[in-house]
């Protein structure tokens, strides 16, 4: 028997190693899934933002996107289903030095966590919410969710979905978000830029990231593999900055309007708090 | 001051600087007091959209470095169960006050109940141990709230204060000491960047790094290893969950506080907690006047249950009378601990009012015969 020479191993460095918990890789996401792309863009945005990493915390809920917090080398929290936002609210208010980012999915943030989402936006609490929208519950095997387009098939809507989906930018804007953008995982550079803006924005900023789910949603609806989804995003998406979010609905095979929809100034929760603090201190006790 | 106000003041004395809550009778006064006092002390008061959010917000605030509390009653307590579990799993110090009212469901919003005692013990899913204290006066509500904060930090766990509507709303003199004991947060001894693992100390409680200190901690509700990373297998589950239970069970002596009156030489013991213990004590005094050898065992700590002491007492007495405003919850624990050595007589009141001392007295008389 001849001896096979051991090949030289060249240690590869991950381009995002500075912010990834490499000991936790490989990640759990399927091939063709967009969550990794969204995470990559977030890390890029964080690097560009110039924010001190020790003062940035990431909070996730439950689900595929909810696993993101576990891969990032920041103070990171993987909370219960739907509860990332109220957890982050407590964290943010307890330590005003912190920048708090919520990275989670559509089911987590908008179905079970929907009430928390609208109230955090209403309060204009200083936080960035990144919502990876893959139109279904991936972690549990592809069930219908609050963003599943009407008539789309999932494992719990096998004949088609009889509900209207939420239009997330409209929901965020109507609830009071001061920054609202939507991109697909095809638009990596624009997404990264948007996330940088969102991170530096004071108040409640929201970025929706449309992502493929080749294992469940895309397969159930015969939309193709990950690469087909990229092609479809290229064909069906249209960039319209300042677009009226009321009209930004998404159909199963229709046009996807992307861009920065809302970027306004409004006093944040902490601005009001400062005013109240001054009022309290001004009064003789 | 009222019990609810005493609770809020106790929390503030103990260094609580974050309160998240949602209005609910009969605990609303705690939130109102906190809303008034927190800005005066540079603390945070926030009214959340519901009790699920309130519970989560105090967990977040605790990791942000503040002593944090919420207060509620039955319906809100039910909503908090989900993330009480997250607090236990992530070993997050915080205090949850339940001013109990009559239930189930909306029940008796303005009237007394003690029906949540087993929910306190078993309300969130999975395997765990919990610490719950129960005050029977505004002064005790103050003192036990202080104690709850210290136990929470010492054992890195949520601590419950199980009060009731009568104790919350009654007004009595409360002495606020100049200084109260303060157990500081258990911080890691190594600088940030060295390690990301936080093994438990000898007492099974690990140190805790706050957010923003540079440790880049990971915290998850999933079964996890000492780095905080999810490892969902049998071995890790055994190691983690057994420690979470044992860190409390192994320190029962430190955690359990009882108030005993005339237990030595007694034939009948009234064993109770909260407002029912006060009515019970009255009945004990009446029984003594009649020459009955009666004693009182008041549970200031309800969970973990003082089974060793109850067993010891059981071997020396004829019976326990257990008045409580529910269909018999703690009576089951007394029965279990007594293990047949003494008779256990539950005295159940469905809520909306208190026991008549006369009814407890009758039970004592019968048991003494």
List the helices and strands and how they pair.
The complex is a heterodimer of chains A (285) and B (369).
Chain A: H1 35-49, E1 56-60, E2 75-78, H2 84-94, E3 99-105, H3 106-112, H4 114-123, E4 127-133, H5 168-175, E5 179-184, H6 188-200, E6 204-210, H7 217-220, H8 226-236, E7 237-239, E8 256-263, H9 269-282
Chain B: H1 3-13, E1 16-21, H2 28-37, E2 44-47, H3 51-63, E3 67-72, H4 74-89, E4 94-102, E5 108-112, H5 117-122, E6 131-133, H6 138-155, E7 158-164, H7 165-169, E8 218-220, H8 234-249, H9 252-255, E9 258-261, E10 268-272, H10 274-289, E11 294-299, E12 301-303, H11 307-314, E13 319-324, H12 330-338, E14 343-348, H13 357-368
Parallel strand pairs in B: 1-2, 1-3, 3-4, 4-7, 6-7, 10-11, 10-13, 13-14
Antiparallel strand pairs in B: 4-5, 6-12, 9-11
Q: What is the CATH class designation of chain A?
A: Alpha Beta
Number of helices of chain A: 9
Work out the largest interface and the residue count of each chain.
A-B, 38 and 45 residues
Number of distinct beta strands of chain A? 8
Looking at the structure, the CATH topology of the largest domain in chain B is Rossmann fold
**Radius of gyration of chain B, taken over Cα atoms and rounded to an integer in Å:** 21 Å
CATH architecture of the largest domain in chain B: 3-Layer(aba) Sandwich
CATH H-level superfamily of the largest domain in chain B = Thiamin diphosphate (ThDP)-binding fold, Pyr/PP domains
Helix content of chain B: 25-40%
Largest sheet of chain A: 8 strands, mixed
- Silhouette of chain B: globular
Give me the count of strands of chain B: 14
Record the strand order, biggest sheet of chain A: 2-1-3-4-6-5-8-7
Using only C-alpha atoms, the radius of gyration of chain A works out to 20 Å
Uncertain spans of chain B: none
Sheet-strand content of chain B, in percent, reads 15-25%
Q: Report the uncertain regions of chain A.
A: none
CATH class of the largest domain in chain B: Alpha Beta
Distance between the ends of chain B: 42 Å
And the CATH topology of chain A?
Answer: Rossmann fold
Q: What is the ordering of alpha helices and beta strands of chain A?
A: HEEHEHHEHEHEHHEEH
């Amino acid at each position: 028997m001849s001896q096979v020479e051991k090949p030289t191993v060249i240690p590869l460095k991950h381009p995002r190693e500075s912010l990834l918990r490499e000991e936790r890789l490989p990640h759990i996401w399927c091939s063709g899934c967009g969550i990794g792309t969204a995470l990559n863009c977030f890390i890029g945005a964080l690097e560009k933002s110039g924010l001190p990493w020790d003062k940035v915390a990431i909070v996730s809920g439950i689900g595929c996107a909810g696993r993101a917090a576990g891969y990032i080398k920041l103070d990171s929290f993987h909370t219960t289903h739907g509860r990332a936002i109220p957890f982050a609210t407590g964290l943010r208010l307890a330590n005003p030095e912190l920048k708090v980012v919520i990275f989670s999915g559509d089911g987590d943030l908008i179905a079970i966590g929907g009430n928390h989402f609208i109230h955090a936006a209403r309060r204009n609490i200083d936080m960035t919410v990144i919502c990876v929208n893959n139109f279904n519950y991936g972690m549990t095997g592809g069930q219908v969710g609050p963003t599943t387009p009407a008539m789309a098939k999932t494992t719990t809507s096998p004949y088609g979905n009889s509900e209207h989906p939420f239009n997330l930018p409209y929901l965020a804007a109507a609830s009071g978000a001061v920054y609202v953008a939507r991109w697909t995982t095809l638009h990596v550079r624009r997404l990264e830029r948007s996330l940088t803006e969102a991170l530096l924005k004071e108040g409640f900023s929201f970025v929706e990231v449309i992502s493929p789910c080749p294992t469940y949603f895309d397969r159930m609806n015969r939309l193709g593999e990950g690469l087909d989804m990229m092609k479809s995003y290229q064909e069906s998406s249209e960039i319209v900055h300042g677009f009226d979010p009321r009209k930004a609905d998404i159909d199963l095979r229709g046009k996807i309007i992307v861009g920065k929809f809302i970027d306004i100034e409004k006093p944040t929760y902490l601005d009001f708090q400062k005013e109240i603090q001054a009022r309290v201190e001004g009064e003789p006790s | 001051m009222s019990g609810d106000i005493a609770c809020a003041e106790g929390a503030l004395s103990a260094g609580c600087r974050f309160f998240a809550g949602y209005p609910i009778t009969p605990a609303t006064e705690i939130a109102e007091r906190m809303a008034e006092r927190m800005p005066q002390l540079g603390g945070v008061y926030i009214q959340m959209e519901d009790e699920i959010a309130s519970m989560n917000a105090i967990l977040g605030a605790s990791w942000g470095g503040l002593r944090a509390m919420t207060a509620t009653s039955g319906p809100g307590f039910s909503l908090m169960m989900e993330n009480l579990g997250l607090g236990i799993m992530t070993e997050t110090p915080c205090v949850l006050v339940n001013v109990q009212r009559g239930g189930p469901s909306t029940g008796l919003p303005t009237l007394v109940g003690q029906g949540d005692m087993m929910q306190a013990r078993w309300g969130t899913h999975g395997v765990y141990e919990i610490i719950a204290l129960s005050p029977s006066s505004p002064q005790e509500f103050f003192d036990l709230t202080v104690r709850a904060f210290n136990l929470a930090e010492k054992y890195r766990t949520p601590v419950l204060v199980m009060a009731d509507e009568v104790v919350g709303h009654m007004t009595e003199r409360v002495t606020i000491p100049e200084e109260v004991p303060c157990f500081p947060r258990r911080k890691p001894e190594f600088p940030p960047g060295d390690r990301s693992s936080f093994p438990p100390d000898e007492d099974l409680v690990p140190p805790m790094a706050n957010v923003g200190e540079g440790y880049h901690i990971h915290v998850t509700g999933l079964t996890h290893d000492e780095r905080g990373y999810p490892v969902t297998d049998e071995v890790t589950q055994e190691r983690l969950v057994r420690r979470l239970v044992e860190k409390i069970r192994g320190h029962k002596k430190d955690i359990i506080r009882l108030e005993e009156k005339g237990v030595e030489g007694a034939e009948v013991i009234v064993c109770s907690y909260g407002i029912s213990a006060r009515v019970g004590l009255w009945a004990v005094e009446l029984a003594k006047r009649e020459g009955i050898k009666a004693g009182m065992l008041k549970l200031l700590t309800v969970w973990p249950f003082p089974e060793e002491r109850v067993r010891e007492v059981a071997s020396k007495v004829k019976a326990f009378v257990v008045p409580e405003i529910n269909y018999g919850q703690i009576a089951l624990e007394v029965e279990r601990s007594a293990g047949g050595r003494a008779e256990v007589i539950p005295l159940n009141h469905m809520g909306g009012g208190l026991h008549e001392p006369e009814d407890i007295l009758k039970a004592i008389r019968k048991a003494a015969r």
